[in-house]
Amino acid sequence: MTPRDELKALLAQKELLIFDLDGTLFNTLGDLAPAVNYAMTQFGLKTHSNDDVRTFIGNGSMNLIRRAVAANFIDVKLVRNFDKVAAVLEREGYSEESIKEIHKVYSEFYWEHCTENTEPYEDVVELLQRIATVNRSGNCARNDKNRTERNENHAGNNGSCAASFNRNEDYAECDKNGAQPVNCVATKSAKVRCAAMLTNKPIAPAQKILEKFGLENSFATYLCGDTTPERKPSPAGIFEILRQTGIAPEKAVMIGDDTPDILAAKNAGIDCITLFEGFGKAENLLPLEPRYTAGHIKDFAEFI
Question: What pTM was computed for the model?
Fold first, then answer.
């Protein structure tokens, strides 16, 4: 793992923290696994252990279901290989339409149960609240209003689930009143520190989870699997977040636990802190040679 002093030095340079959701902010496995297994049983397929479902997670829920189905016919260790999964699904007669049918059953069950066993990781709620609630008085409060309005009409917000903000205008306007934007923290060096979220998870369960823990207004912006321009590992979501926040790539860091997070950050040219105690497994993460690593957010939250 990266030495704590090195993580501290890295984070001191950053103004924008882009968080993944599953395995990073929240341990969602307790709700994902039952939903996957419910869908499997409805189509006469075998169920999977929680640890196997953990292997299936990443690259969006359609790939979650593809891997879960493919694991009925090939070793679980092979399901991270897209070509092998595609080949076995074709061989076994699972068309894209049939995968969509299974995915629909999974999605409906997961939506109904997605907050029953999901919990935030240690220090996550406190960290996001600290970033978001430095000052909620005066003109700064308008960010919450704008975010609510845009959430109600997220489909027309150019792929954003939450309100973006004009960093320069908001910061200047709030600064007149001696306050900071509601979704940013001003450090002693006068930097503005903002939180964003980029997840391949669909918007409906993502928002439901955030709302359960009172975090729906804790981000400058967030993009979901069905609202981002392209899912991770594409850098498009990161580029859109940088555009909305007006923060330069060198001032941003991705924080995630799996290969799509590392690759999206690399593709976007920004730093990434890879978490080894989330859903990603070391055998998949280490070949990517992540530059900065930690067990989880609790190991460096105090530096933010």
Answer: 0.85
